[in-house]
């Protein structure tokens, strides 16, 4: 095997740093470095991270009661991304992340959320990035990166309301997740309604004309069990092949290092909802809802009464 050039060797500088770190204590740094190496691929998480919550009726029924996605798909979706962004930026110590966790828990407590669903979302957020990077990334994913995601997502699940952490190993996370998809993900009419509302909005984030095609191709990467549960057509061979080719191209190289003062891509999205700026206190539905349900008991997920 020939010697690598300096430019080729430089591509591996992040993974070399990762190999010096310990997932137990440095999980946030490892995840950040992973996101820089595979950042172009991880745009798909905007879709997969939402689709898992639409495909399981126990979660879809919470959406049905809240009606947040229907009322303002853009705000709800961007707020969710920003809550996660706050944690990614600030870690789990005192400060903005604790405020974000408190706000999300206040929202979650309004509804009768099944605890297993917290773990399912965390499992999806753990497994999807590494699986996508394994399939389409320009380098191999390391065991330290896999473990860092498990630890980071377990902590985030606890921060946002889970009573339990993720299982203790990635193999157990995968076993739980596959069983969840087999047993808890199935068709319910509102699954389809909320998924289609979300997917109709997604092209607005992309270049005109080709946005719908990009979303159509990205959806081909969603687990077929989730697509069926949402009443969506499964991709054929041609669509899957085009989707795989697009993903392979997206994952063909790492992102460049961010430049000093460079705006994070999510800040551009945030301006769509918050043109005058935002902070963690801006997020969530209360500015749109006159009654925040303060002091009320949880709203049952099988309730037919919408949040008002």
- Give the averaged pLDDT, no decimals: 89
Q: Describe the main β-sheet briefly.
A: none
Q: Determine the N-to-C terminus distance.
A: 65 Å
Shape: globular
Question: What's the structural blueprint in terms of helices and strands?
Answer:
Blueprint: H1 6-10, H2 13-18, H3 23-37, H4 45-55, H5 57-66, H6 68-71, H7 73-90, H8 96-108, H9 115-136, H10 143-159, H11 170-184, H12 189-201, H13 211-219, H14 224-229, H15 237-250, H16 265-273
Helix pairs in contact: 3-10, 4-9, 4-12, 7-8, 7-16, 9-10, 9-11
Task: Describe the fold and architecture.
The structure is a single chain. The protein has 308 residues and is mainly alpha-helical. The chain has 16 helices and no strands. Helix 4 (45-55) runs antiparallel to helix 9 (115-136). The chain is globular and about 50 Å long. The N and C termini lie far apart (65 Å). Mean pLDDT is 89; it is low at 287-308.
Question: Features of this protein?
Answer:
308 residues, mainly alpha, 16 helices, 0% strand, globular
Short recap of the structure:
The chain has 16 helices and no strands.
